[in-house]
Design a protein that fits this description.
10 strands; 256 residues; alpha/beta; 10 helices; 6-stranded mixed β-sheet; 23% strand
């Protein structure tokens, strides 16, 4: 079986600074992998390379059998590799269903002229997008909020909607950047259940950055740890939890 994602020897240099060095990752379809490390370890740089925001100085990225190294972010997204950012990017002046439909429009078959003229084909396409968005909201338990102004929703619901909106783009691989950042315990548990649903019910492959160790250890069967741009550990949660290099990276080492 062809891996859905391969990152081979990724290195990212900014002038004389090496942010990430020789990073490797192979993900099979349906996997959930956690990428962790202290602040400044290079996690976001890895995401930026995979999504096309940075072109690696060295190395290549293969997605679904195709080399996407240096490809434009919108082209990568159209292929089904979608990123959900840590900082909220919802349209706060729109309601929930409108936010969902905006993401659906990247798969829209109509055009501007048809939209202006409100042609029958455009109207059918608009209805299809609406129906699919409503069905998705119902599936994840947010249908009753579909006409609520997004900016007035509780923060935990907004974060969940951010991820739900990404589903409208029909991703096969989802990059989640700290999905529980700023959430309380109840909201965190709800997001964890949602991520489980994404993998088990929707069949989406997920690469996850997260600082909350409880979340990573509970959700991710495989974890990669980087520090100062270098991979220091790869393994299952128990192996990572007891790894001396990981403990030192997070807690530091007393100088004697």
């Amino acid at each position: 079986m062809t891996p859905i994602l391969e990152a081979k020897n990724l290195t990212m240099r900014f002038g004389g600074l090496t942010s990430v060095s020789d990073f490797n990752l192979t993900m099979e379809k349906g996997e959930l992998v956690g990428l962790i490390g202290p602040n400044g370890a290079g996690k976001s740089t890895v995401f930026n390379m995979i999504c096309g925001f940075y072109k690696p100085t060295i190395g290549e990225i293969i997605f679904d059998g195709k080399n996407i190294t240096g490809m434009k972010p919108y082209r990568i997204a159209n292929m089904g590799l979608i990123r959900v950012f840590q900082n909220g990017r919802l349209f706060k002046n729109m309601n929930v269903i409108e936010n969902m439909m905006v993401s659906k429009h990247m798969r829209f078959n109509s055009n501007s002229l048809k939209a202006i003229l409100r042609t029958p084909s455009h109207n059918r396409e608009e209805q299809r997008v609406f129906d699919e968005s409503v069905a998705l909201l119902e599936r994840i338990g947010l249908k009753e909020m579909m006409y609520e102004p997004t900016g007035k929703l509780p923060f935990g619901i907004q974060r969940k909607l951010e991820v739900a909106r990404a589903l409208c783009a029909n991703p096969s691989l989802l990059l989640l950047d700290e999905p529980v950042a700023g959430l309380n315990v109840e909201e965190t548990n709800d997001m964890m259940n949602f991520v489980d649903q994404l993998r088990n019910e929707f069949g989406i492959t997920i690469l996850l950055i997260e600082h909350t160790m409880r979340v990573v250890m509970s959700l991710c069967p495989k974890i990669i740890v980087i520090d100062h741009g270098e991979t220091i550990a790869v393994g299952i949660p128990d192996e990572i939890r007891n790894n001396k290099s990981v403990i030192e990276a997070y807690l530091g080492v007393d100088e004697q």
